[in-house]
Amino acid sequence: MGLDQYAFIRLETKDVDGNFETEELATWRKHSSLHGFMEQHYYGDKEFNCIDLEITEDDIDELEEAVNAGDLPATKGFFFGDDSSKYYKEADLEFCANARKALEDGQEVFYSSWW
Predict the structure, then answer these.
(1) Higher pLDDT, 83 or 12
(2) Three-class secondary structure of residue 84 per DSSP
(3) 12: number of Cβ within 10 Å
(4) In the chain, N or C: fewer CB atoms in 10 Å?
């Protein structure tokens, strides 16, 4: 068990169950600081687990700035592992670029996690 994280775009097509199909943009494993960043951008009253959080252009700008500055929030959880911000830095920046392009193309970008 552990923290599994995904970023995806929602496609206009639906599967046989009527759910929107998705296209993966990025995956992470036990990137607790990224999860903490996303959790700060979620204003719900439920536990931040298995929630599809829509990512805006402002979110991407803030994430890219935090990644470049080494300023993602330290986040702890039983299944989260150690801080992996340095390990994922390049992947985070690649996600920011791909997410920005998807948003410019009129697509919706989401972050989700499961732990």
Answers:
(1) 12
(2) coil
(3) 8
(4) N
